[in-house]
Write a sequence for this structure.
């Protein structure tokens, strides 16, 4: 088949690229540190940080950035005086949530809770960086509880806003979007997490102390379980990435990194991955498939609004789109809030103002960045209506309800499906590159890279589509969706994603065995035999096994997670024959080491 | 002559007033292999702009058709090709009933999302429905249709009859 040959050429070129530019950096040993004494102030900070991650105060970087374990670990590390360790713990926890996607208000698991509480407990309890994931993973499952509570309770608030809308009170509608919900959210997010961080780290400390004295093998088990859980995070991604002809890029990324001993030059790998993706797209995507953007029938704005008005509306959406997110109307109140500067400018009589507020207080839900194009279109329609055009409530409503879904689909694909996982992968790479942060282990460059990438998309891209929506009206939507670059981007991202997952799989999955058999005086070390086949063979087999279970056998991620922790910990019970490295005598060892 | 095989079930019949969006693309289409999405809605079938938007919003490789209810009943019938990999998207319970009564019998109905609106009350998480819509869903349950509330594969699902006793 033609396509296959082209893929083959692309992969051949990329392999040559990689071999030529291979740079080997060896890992530095990590010094173990004492646990941090968790103070009340530190615990309170951790709780507040978790609230902030779910709050509207960071211009949409809360949920997209602060909520991710990589950033969470960094902030907790900073608060507890262990920045480097915090970054590394955050990166390790984040592996599990790389493929985590929240769509349309459904939120399985809680990366933020795993990140904030997991890092705090690991640092406060004195748990090692590489063992922290086994502790954080179960914590992430608890987060779903508060989510449902939040979504239900916040459903009450828009009804209050309805009353203000009836009175035509624009300011009060705006206020009701962020004043009522936030104290409640602070209460349900910050307080329990602060308490859990304070009491939990003592509990973890005591438990680890007991384990160290009485059952050291459990400690090994936590290391083994954490190393194996990373494989689950990667396998969850592969479930989506192993589609079409691009799966070999995963193996290329993996084997090249394994050959280089795991410590690869991150910048080189990122550039190679991007080149490979570009070549793949070049060789496989038909260039004729790009349909040119429709030349927008340049809308003639009546001139009632200035660029500044449109920008002020965008700012309100950027910050407060989700501050009263709820089951009943989702972002309905957020939408109305964003329209308040426009309504104030366009309408003067109480009837008009009240009507406009009520019009925009209804159910609305979209992806906040790309979805902003809908707001742009709606602002344009409101402006024309105020200028006297016959635009009915129904017309405005049907634009909103018709477009919010489709643009959310594209937005989720771009942001949650491509940008966040790839930027996180590269950020995590930076974060745990031992060479970059030899002394402190974690490197600040990692979280910083991620933050910049997400801010560029959220702020830059968000404003761009919002403004285009206003300028071009409905045509902007088809133009954004049509541009052929979108499909090429999605295909290229699939290649880069596979490649990066291969690199990450080597760096984050750790699985080896100390089991050795002594037969007639000769010692057969299983790991040495495996290594002679191929370095990192066990991690590769593990990740493929988990992928097979998830994708082919439809085993739920939860079941896999629990099984992996059980196998990791129980399998570490010293039951198997091994050899003492120093004395050379036969001893009992666990399966993993 | 060979005995005719049992009619292949439609891949998914889903009520979702946002039609093609993140849950459908990142959720359903990534977990199940659909080849075709058929949006059945009278308003959409008459709106060429929205049809264009829906086609462009679908992931590459998926055929998107927008049909009126009448066309839907005709086109999706038992002879339709690839029924098993077809996802039918509807905006409301009323559309589901009109399809069913029109002769397009399906055995399972997925309620994915119905936003609040005047006259509707919230019945479960992201699902709102008017009294009329609730009785329509009950009507379908009574006829043996398995009505399930589920946003995306892997999320917790709930039988409709559990939600409204």
């Amino acid at each position: 088949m033609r396509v296959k040959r082209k893929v083959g050429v692309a992969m051949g070129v990329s392999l040559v690229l990689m071999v030529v530019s291979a740079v080997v950096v060896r890992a530095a040993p990590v010094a173990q540190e004492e646990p941090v004494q968790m103070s009340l102030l530190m615990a309170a900070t951790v709780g507040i940080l978790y609230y902030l991650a779910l709050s509207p105060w960071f211009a949409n970087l809360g949920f997209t950035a602060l909520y991710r374990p990589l950033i969470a670990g960094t902030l907790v590390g900073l608060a507890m005086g262990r920045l480097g360790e915090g970054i590394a713990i955050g990166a390790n926890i984040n592996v599990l949530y790389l493929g985590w996607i929240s769509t349309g208000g459904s939120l399985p698991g809680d990366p933020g809770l795993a990140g904030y509480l997991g890092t705090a407990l690991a640092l406060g309890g004195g748990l090692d960086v590489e063992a922290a994931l086994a502790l954080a993973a179960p914590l992430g499952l608890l987060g779903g509880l508060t989510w449902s509570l939040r979504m239900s309770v916040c459903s009450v608030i828009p009804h209050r806003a309805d009353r203000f809308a009836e009175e035509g009170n624009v300011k009060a509608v705006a206020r009701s979007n962020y004043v009522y919900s936030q104290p409640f959210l602070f209460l349900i997010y910050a307080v329990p997490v602060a308490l859990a961080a304070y009491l939990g780290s003592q509990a973890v400390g005591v438990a680890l102390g007991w384990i160290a004295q009485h059952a050291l093998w459990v400690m090994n088990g936590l290391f083994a379980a954490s190393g194996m859980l990373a494989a689950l995070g990667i396998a969850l991604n592969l479930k989506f990435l192993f589609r079409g002809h691009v799966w070999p890029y995963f193996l290329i990324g993996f084997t090249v990194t394994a050959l280089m001993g795991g410590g690869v030059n991150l910048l080189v790998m990122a550039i190679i991955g991007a080149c490979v993706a570009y070549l793949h797209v070049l060789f496989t995507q038909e260039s004729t498939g790009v349909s040119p953007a429709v030349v927008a029938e340049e809308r003639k704005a009546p001139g009632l609004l200035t660029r500044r008005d449109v920008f002020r509306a965008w700012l309100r959406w950027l910050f407060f789109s989700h501050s009263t997110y709820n089951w009943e109307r989702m972002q309905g109140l957020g939408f109305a809030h964003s329209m308040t500067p426009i309504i104030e400018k366009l309408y003067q009589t109480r009837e008009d103002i009240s009507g406009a507020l009520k019009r925009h207080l209804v159910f609305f839900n979209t992806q906040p960045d790309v979805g902003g194009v809908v707001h742009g279109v709606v602002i344009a329609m409101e402006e024309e209506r105020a200028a006297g055009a016959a635009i009915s409530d129904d017309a405005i409503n049907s634009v909103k309800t018709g477009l919010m879904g489709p643009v959310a689909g594209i937005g989720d694909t771009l942001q949650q499906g491509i940008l966040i996982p790839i930027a996180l992968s590269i950020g995590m790479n930076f974060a745990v590159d031992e060479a970059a942060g030899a002394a402190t282990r974690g490197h600040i460059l990692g979280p910083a890279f991620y933050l910049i990438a997400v801010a560029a998309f959220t702020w830059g891209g968000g404003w761009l589509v919002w403004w285009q929506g206003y300028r071009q009206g409905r045509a902007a939507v088809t133009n954004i969706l049509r541009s052929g670059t979108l499909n090429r981007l999605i295909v290229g991202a699939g290649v880069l994603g596979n490649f990066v997952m291969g690199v990450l799989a080597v760096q984050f999955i750790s699985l080896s065995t100390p089991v050795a058999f002594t037969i007639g005086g000769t010692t057969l070390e299983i790991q040495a035999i495996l290594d002679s086949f191929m370095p990192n063979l066990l991690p590769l087999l593990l990740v493929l096994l988990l992928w097979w279970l998830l994708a082919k056998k439809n085993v739920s991620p939860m079941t896999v997670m629990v099984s992996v922790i059980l196998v990791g910990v129980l399998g570490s019970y010293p039951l198997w024959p091994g050899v003492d490295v120093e004395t050379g005598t036969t001893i009992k060892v666990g399966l993993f080491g | 002559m060979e005995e005719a095989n049992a009619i292949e079930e439609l891949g998914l019949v889903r009520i979702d007033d946002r039609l093609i969006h993140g849950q459908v693309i990142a959720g359903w289409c990534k977990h199940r292999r659909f080849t075709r999405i058929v949006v059945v809605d009278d308003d959409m079938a008459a709106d060429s702009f929205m049809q264009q938007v829906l086609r462009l919003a679908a992931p590459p490789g998926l055929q998107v058709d927008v049909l009126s209810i009448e066309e839907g009943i005709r086109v999706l019938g038992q002879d339709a090709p690839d029924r098993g990999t077809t996802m039918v998207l509807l905006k409301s319970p009323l559309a589901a009933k009109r399809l069913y009564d029109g002769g397009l019998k399906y055995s399972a109905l997925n309620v994915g999302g119905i936003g609040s609106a005047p006259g509707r009350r919230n019945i479960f998480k992201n699902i709102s429905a008017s009294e009329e819509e609730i009785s329509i869903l009950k009507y379908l349950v009574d006829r043996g249709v398995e009505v399930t509330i589920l946003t995306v594969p892997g999320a917790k699902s709930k039988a409709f009859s559990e939600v409204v006793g």
About this structure: Residues 18-32, 435-440 of chain A have pLDDT under 50 and may be disordered. Chain A touches chain B through 47 residues (CB under 8 Å).
